[in-house]
Amino acid sequence: MRRVSLLSTLVAGLCLAGLSAQAAGGRYVNPADRAEERIIPMYGNLPACEDPAVLGEITSWFNSREAKFWGPLQAISFDRVRPVAWRPWGSDFIPRRFCTARVLTNDGVLRRVDYSVRENLGLFGWTWNVNWCVSGLDRHRSYAPDCQMARP
């Protein structure tokens, strides 16, 4: 008897709070909570994975980081560029496009690069930004193990 009243109290509390069974499980997004409905809306207008501006930003940051801290390694070109996921965590999170590719470096080695293009995370929140990790060259283990944390 006591279990039944506790369960009914819990269900009544969820109903009074305006939550459905789906919301309690984390699968339902209230339309008012979507990224498009925020004070500063985010519409997901992001460049594609193979966009030259995206690949150019990765190349620029990679080459400057390697020259400054690690040595003469430079990115030469990209191939097998493909999207992995689009907004994988739902419409109430910051829009992100996850991609993967291979990068050829000047030592002749092809390495996997995982990256995400993120909306409103650029300079002063005005533009998109790229977050990236080159497999085998994550020397600070920021995305360990093997760039897995740079993927969805």
User: Which whole number gives the mean pLDDT?
Assistant: 79
- Stretches where pLDDT is under 50 for at least 5 consecutive residues are 9-25
The main sheet comes to: 4 strands, antiparallel
- What is the chains' assembly state? single chain
What is the helix content?
25-40%
The computed structural class is alpha+beta
Terminal CA distance reads 45 Å
Q: Output the number of helix runs.
A: 3
Number of strands: 4
N-to-C order of helices and strands:
HHHEEEE
- Radius of gyration using CA atoms only: 21 Å
Approximate strand percentage = 15-25%
- Described by the principal axes of the CA atoms, the overall outline is elongated
Give structural notes.
This protein has a four-stranded antiparallel β-sheet, with helices on one face. It contains three helices and four strands. It has helices spanning 2-16, 21-25, 52-70, and strands at residues 75-86, 96-105, 110-118, 129-134.
